[in-house]
Write a sequence for this structure.
């Protein structure tokens, strides 16, 4: 057994002991402590927020302005009351965790969560959700964000030492099989990341242990005839530029393409307005660090688009080579690589072909920004939900999901708990 595996097993043993004590406390007491944690994180002057804004840019490569704005947008509605409302909606309230009820919820003795990506808000929620159920949590931070989990743990220790004892952060190399086996021996295992990573972890978890996986997801925008001109177009472009610029387009709610449903050429004015909006937002929210592999993919996809344009295809590349964004006005909505880092494709689609054009993305579809469809909006929203989208909102709001957002169509806490029906009354 590796040294890391021994450390993981020791942490798991400590957490099981701490969890036994935690479950003796009323659920409402635990939720109250976590509500205070969320309120502190919403406060831009709190030590936790200041620490994250100071440390995350160095670790994850975001510009300080993007971290500051991204946190303000993401956490604006993540209040203590929102946490209580979430538990009430999904479980019926804290009493479901404490006493005999028509629906009773039992936490797992130990939850283990593999964090992924570089966005701090999803990491915060992934840490809070098991603790809200009074399940002690063993967490392995993402290599892209080694900061958020440790800041959460420090902040929680100041609020509630007993609850903080139920959160341990461990690190081990991705190729340390013994450490990973020790990690996934928890009663409930949560994994986020690429599809291959999630599948690999899932293969190690056998019933009756619970596995919850969140794989690769993408988001898009749809603009209809009423959003293709004038101030409505400018407003949509500014909103989409914010959705793209926040977190440098690296989150699952960052739109990678804009589908324009219109008769005639509606895609060109949208591409031009979006390029200008991205140029303007760069002054306020500059793009962060781009690694060598990402630079190569950006250059490759830009070059491929330029070659198609030079060959006389109805393609245009907007944004000079040295600018920190690229907008490609495509000739169709055929699936193409998404280099991210503020690279957006604007694709023309016949109004009746919107859902068909999105069908290839259905297994990975997360969010859709929607504008300009007038009375067609409800029917289109229904079709998008049937396709698999779990969040549909207006441009500019993709990066601000509510605390209770049903990620991947699931609840926030219900996948992490065992439910029982009490039918003796």
């Amino acid at each position: 057994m590796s040294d890391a595996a021994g450390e993981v097993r020791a942490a798991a043993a400590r957490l099981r002991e701490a969890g036994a004590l935690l479950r003796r406390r009323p659920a409402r007491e635990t939720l109250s402590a976590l509500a205070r944690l969320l309120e502190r994180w919403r406060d831009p002057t709190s030590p936790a927020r200041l620490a994250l804004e100071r440390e995350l840019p160095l670790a994850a490569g975001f510009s300080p302005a993007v971290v500051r704005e991204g946190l303000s947008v993401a956490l604006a509605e993540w209040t203590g009351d929102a946490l209580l409302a979430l538990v009430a909606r999904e479980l019926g309230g804290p009493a479901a965790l404490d006493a005999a009820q028509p629906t009773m919820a039992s936490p797992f003795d130990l939850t283990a969560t593999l964090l992924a990506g570089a966005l701090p808000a999803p990491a915060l929620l992934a840490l809070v959700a098991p603790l809200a159920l009074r399940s002690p949590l063993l967490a392995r931070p993402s290599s892209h964000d080694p900061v958020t989990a440790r800041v959460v743990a420090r902040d929680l220790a100041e609020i509630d030492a007993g609850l903080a004892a139920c959160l341990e952060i461990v690190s081990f190399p991705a190729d340390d099989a013994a450490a990973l086996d020790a990690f996934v021996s928890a009663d409930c295992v949560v994994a986020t990341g690429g599809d291959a990573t999630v599948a690999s972890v899932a293969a190690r978890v056998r019933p009756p242990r619970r596995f919850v996986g969140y794989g690769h997801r993408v988001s898009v925008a749809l603009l209809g005839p009423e959003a293709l001109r004038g101030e409505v177009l400018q407003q949509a472009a500014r909103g989409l530029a914010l959705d793209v610029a926040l977190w440098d387009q690296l989150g699952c709610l960052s739109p990678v393409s804009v589908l324009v449903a219109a008769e005639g050429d509606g895609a060109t004015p949208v591409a031009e307005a979006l390029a200008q909006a991205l140029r303007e937002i760069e002054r306020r929210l500059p793009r962060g660090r781009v690694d060598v592999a990402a630079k190569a993919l950006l250059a490759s996809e830009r070059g491929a688009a330029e070659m198609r344009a030079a060959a006389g295809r109805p393609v245009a590349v907007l944004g000079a080579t040295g600018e920190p964004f690229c907008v490609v006005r495509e000739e169709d909505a055929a699936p193409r690589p998404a280099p991210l880092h503020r690279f957006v494709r604007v694709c023309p689609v016949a109004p009746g072909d919107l859902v068909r054009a999105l069908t290839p993305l259905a297994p990975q579809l997360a969010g859709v920004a929607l504008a300009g469809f007038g009375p067609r909006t409800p029917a289109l929203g229904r079709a998008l939900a049937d396709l698999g989208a779990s969040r549909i909102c207006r441009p500019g709001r993709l990066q601000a999901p509510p605390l209770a957002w049903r990620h991947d169509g699931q609840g926030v806490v219900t996948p992490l708990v065992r439910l029982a029906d009490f039918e003796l009354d």
Summary: The longest strand covers residues 255-261. The domain at 218-393 is CATH 3.40.309.10 (Aldehyde Dehydrogenase; Chain A, domain 2). The first helix runs from residue 3 to 22. The CA atoms of residues 136 and 166 lie 5 Å apart.
